[in-house]
TrEMBL record:
The gene is guaA. This is GMP synthase [glutamine-hydrolyzing]. It comes from Hyphococcus lacteus. ATP binds at S29, G30, G31, V32, D33, S34, S35. GO terms for molecular function: GMP synthase (glutamine-hydrolyzing) activity. The chain holds residues 206 to 524 of 524 of the full protein. Pathway: Purine metabolism; GMP biosynthesis; GMP from XMP (L-Gln route): step 1/1. Signal peptide: none annotated. It catalyses: XMP + L-glutamine + ATP + H2O = GMP + L-glutamate + AMP + diphosphate + 2 H(+).
Length: 319
């Protein structure tokens, strides 16, 4: 009889066997997978684990603070927190091609991570929250988008360059199983139940050039959208919900004034694995209420639209 409790014990045994007394570095992304991997490995080897969290400035509102709090304060897991927002935004200046953005973010991430990891003496292993679908995707697709998808997510290139062996305790699990394991390990429910978030973060939710100002507008609008979804009790029915700040300005009116501001697109999909997806059928009342709140509360947005494209033929993200 397979249970998550048994899986956990077995995984802990295997991690101990694999790493012996070597030091393990784990890159935290702020997401569920890397967090669950880190907590599991910490249970197995305690102080031999150091986590590195690179803040790219492309996270959702309050996300980096939450990760730091969770790891440092609740779990007491050694965490190196690198503030690299200016570096990332600087490198992204003037770039609008989606794949170039991904490459820049991936390369910058590796540079920052590498520099931090080099300071950790006797580091022999690199831990990653690779899941079973990641393993499948990275071998079964030939040049398709999936390969690129995982290029940043799995910190590709790092182990070779750093001469580290990989520790991937979640390799046999699917997303829903990782969530069960996370609960088993005592991670808070709202953290474990979080929607997946792409490695390149908000950069691929700002088509065109990414700026600090646009990222701020997007964070504010997205917080309101997710807040409305939670209030309506719909968060757990949805695979991913997020906002996209479009590089298009349209005319509006506010009081007696004419406005000329950004369009914000709202997206929400149901899915089981992210490979196919259907758009979520919100009521018109719900969408109208979101639009009103966002336009009233967020400066820089004067029009809100809802994306009703399923995957295929669309993708979940806009870039
Ligand atoms: P798409 O947009 O291809 O997304 O339908 C499928 C799933 O993958 C996520 N995604 C990414 N994750 N790095 C990631 O780590 C990426 O570059 C990336 N692009 C898309 C997306 O959020 C969805 O869950």
């Amino acid at each position: 009889d397979w249970t998550m409790a048994a899986f956990r014990d077995e995984a802990i045994e295997m991690i101990r066997k694999q790493v012996g007394d070597g030091r393990v570095i784990c890159g935290l992304s702020g997401g569920v997978d890397s967090s669950v991997a880190a907590v599991l490995i910490h249970e197995a080897i305690g102080e031999q684990l150091t986590c590195v969290f690179v803040d790219t400035g492309l996270m959702r509102a309050g996300e980096s603070e939450e990760v730091v709090r969770l790891f440092r304060d609740s779990y007491n897991i050694p965490l190196i927190h690198v503030e690299a927002a200016d570096l990332f935004l600087g490198k992204l200046a003037g770039v609008d091609d989606p794949e170039k953005k991904r490459k820049i973010i991936g390369a910058t991430f590796i540079d920052v991570f590498d520099a931090e990891a080099n300071k950790i003496e006797n580091a022999k292993f690199l831990a990653q929250g690779t899941l079973y679908p990641d393993v499948i995707e990275s071998v079964s697709f030939d040049g398709g988008p999936s390969v690129t998808i995982k290029s940043h997510h799995n910190v590709g290139g790092l182990p070779e360059r750093m001469n580290l062996k990989l520790v991937e305790p979640l390799r046999e699990l699917f997303k829903d199983e990782v969530r069960i394991l996370g609960r088993e390990l005592g991670l808070p429910e709202h953290f474990v139940g979080r929607h997946p978030f792409p490695g390149p973060g908000l950069a691929i939710r700002i088509p065109g050039e990414v700026t600090q100002e646009k990222a701020e507008i997007l964070r504010k609008a997205d917080t309101i959208y997710l807040d409305e979804i939670r209030k309506a009790g719909l968060y757990d029915e949805i695979w991913q919900a997020f906002s996209v700040l479009l590089p298009v300005r349209t005319v509006g009116v506010m009081g007696d004034e004419r406005t000329y501001d950004h369009v914000l697109a709202l997206r929400a999909v149901t899915s089981t694995d992210g490979m196919t997806a259907d758009y979520y059928p919100f009521t018109h009342e719900f969408l109208g209420a979101c639009a009103t709140r966002i336009i009233n509360e967020v400066r820089g947005v004067n029009r809100v639209v809802y994306d009703v494209t399923s995957k295929p033929p669309g993708t979940i993200e806009w870039e």
